[in-house]
Amino acid sequence: MPAPYSTAKNTHYGKFATTSRLVSCLVSEGLVNAYYCSCTPRQDENGAIKGLTLLMRLHGATNKIQLSSARPISLENDILAVIPQRGVPELDKESKVLVNGVQCYKIDLADPWDMLPHIYSPEISYNNTTPATLPDSESIYRQVIHGLKIMGLQGDISLVDGFDAVQLWQQFAHDYGVTDKLTDLIASELASSMLHQTYTYDYPKPLPTLESSSIQWEQSIVEGHATHPMHKARRSYPPLPPLNPGQVNLETPKLRLLSIPRSSMQLRGEFETLAAPLVDAILEKTGNAKELRQQHAGHVLMPVHEFQIPNVLERFEDASVLPEENNVTAHSLTSIRSVAIPEVLKDLTVKLCIGIKVSSALRTITPYTTYFGPGFSEQVVPRLSYDRKVLTIERELASAVYSHPDTDMAKHCSCVMREAIEYPSNATPNDDTIVVAAALVEKIQKPDTDETLSTHVWNLDTEEKREAFLDRYIELALKAFVPPCLENGVAFEAHGQNTMCRFDKQTGELKGFVIRDFGGVKAHNPTLKETCGVELDVLPDSCVVAHTLEEAYKLLYHTLFHSQLQRLIRVLDMHHNGRGWEMVRKHFSALVPSDHPMYHFFMVQEKVPGKCLIKMKIEELYRDYIYSPVPNMLLSRPQEFVQ
User: Any idea where the Aerobactin siderophore biosynthesis IucA/IucC-like C-terminal domain is (predicted)?
Assistant: First the structure.
C-alpha cells in the first residue's frame, strides 16, 4: 500500500522541494553570497534549528552584497531569503564575520537535505506571524525570529513562509540583470517543477519491495534530481499540447510506428532486426501485418512515442504514421523517454525522443548519440578494464535517426535499441532484483519524512546496519566505475538515473551494478588508444571526447561522487558524522595509486569543478558545460567548529 500522506501539506512541500534546489544552485555556483549563522535555541523551544542561512541580495552581476559587521544589514534591502537549517552546510572556514557578536561563515556548498522545509522572504509588515501550514510552522518561525533578533536584523520586517522558486528566481534575476524573456522562460520551468512535484505527492505509488519488478522501482521516483530546481519540470512546446499533471500519460505511453523512406534514415547496427519483435507486435494489432509491411516496403518502420508524433509530422514531410490502432503499451523508465515492453521485447529497452523539457534538457536523441552508442558498444566496451562480476555495461546495439543536415531537426526523429539484463528472455524466480540507484534515496512516497526506500526496504533501522550497507555500496561502486576511468580514461555518466543496482532477491545483499546510456560518456582518446588499442568513433564536435584526463575526472566526480554517493551518504545519516566520506577515501585509496593524477584530483585538491546548472540555464547552454569551484566532498569532515 502507498505510504499515508496529507494533501493539505503537499503544495507547501512542492514549493519547498523546488525552491530549496534553486537556493542550493544559487549558493553553490557562487551566484549569490550566503552565510550560515549558528543558533542558540530559545529556552521554550526544542531546538530544531541548528542555524540560519542568510541568502544575500546583489545589485548587478558583479556587485555582491557582503555580510559585514562594518555596516548594518537590512532585511528589506539586503536579504533575499532566510532558511532555517537542520544540518550545517559546507562552509568556507577562512571567510567569517561577526554580526552583533554572532559568528557567521560564508557557505561554499548548500544542500536541500540540510534545510528545514521553511524558506522565508522578508516583507514589510507589523504582524510577526506566519500561517501554520505545517505542524512545526509556529515553532520554527519563533526560532528564526529569535535568531535574527540576536543579530539585530529584525526591526519592523517580518518573514513570510513559503517563498517559492518563481518568486525567488524573479527577484534574483532582476538583481542579476537577466533579460525579461529568459527570466519568464526559466520562471515557467520552475512553476512546472513545483506543479508536477505537488502532483506526485498527491498521488503516491505503492511502495516497492525486493520482489518488485524493475519497472516498479523505476516508477517509484518521488522527487528525482537532488539539486536541480527543474527536477520535476515537464515543459512542452508547440505543436505538442501542454503537459498538465494527470492529463498526459507519461508512465504507460502508447508506442506507434513511423514509416520513413530508407533513403531518409541513418541506421547503425542491426536496427530493423532488433526492432522486429516490437514492430510485428504493433502491426499485428490490426491483423494485417503482412499487408502493412508490403505497403511500406522500402521504408524503415520505427517505433515512436505517441506524444512525439506531432513534432515528427511537422518537421519531416516524407514521414508518415501508421493508424492509431497499431500500438503497444510501454512502461517508461526513470528518464521518461526510455521505455520497456517486457511482454514483447526481451533483453532490450528502447530509448525514444520526446520533445519536452525534463530538468534542463529537451528529451530528444541527437545524431551524435545515435552514431556514437553502437560503435562504442562494439569497439570499446569489450576492451575496457573493469570487473565483469561487479559491473554490467548495457550496450547500445543499434540506432536510427532521420538524415538531416541540421542536427537540431534530426534529433526529433530518432531511436536507440539498448541491452537490458533486467528484462531477460529466460527469466527465473531467482534472478537478481535490479533497482535503479536513484530510487534508493527517494522518500517513501510522502514529503514529510526522512525515511527513504533504502532504509525502509532493507530495514536499515540502526546505525550499524546503515554503515554496513553503505560501506559495501561504496566499495562495489568504486570497483565498478573507477577502473575504466583510471586505466582507460573512460568515465561513465554514473548518476542515479543511469546506474542500476543488482541485489540478491532472497538476502537483499548488493551484488554489483549496471550502467546504461552512453550519451554523457567522457573518454580521453590518447589513454584509450594506449590501453585498448582503439579510439572513439564519433561525429565531429561530439561532446563525449575528453580533451584532457581532467575532463573525464570532472564527469566522474559530478555523476558518481556528487550526484550518486553523496545522496546515499546523506540519507543514511553518514554525512555530518564524516563516516560516509571516510569509507569513500578508504576504498578510493585502495584502488588508485597515490602518485596517479586521478588521486590528486580526487584526494588532494580542496576544490573541484562543480557543474553549474543555473549558470548554464542563464547562458542557455546544454551540450556545453559550465563549471565552478566547489568543495571536494571526498575531503569532507565533520564541521565541529560551528557546532
Answer: 468-592
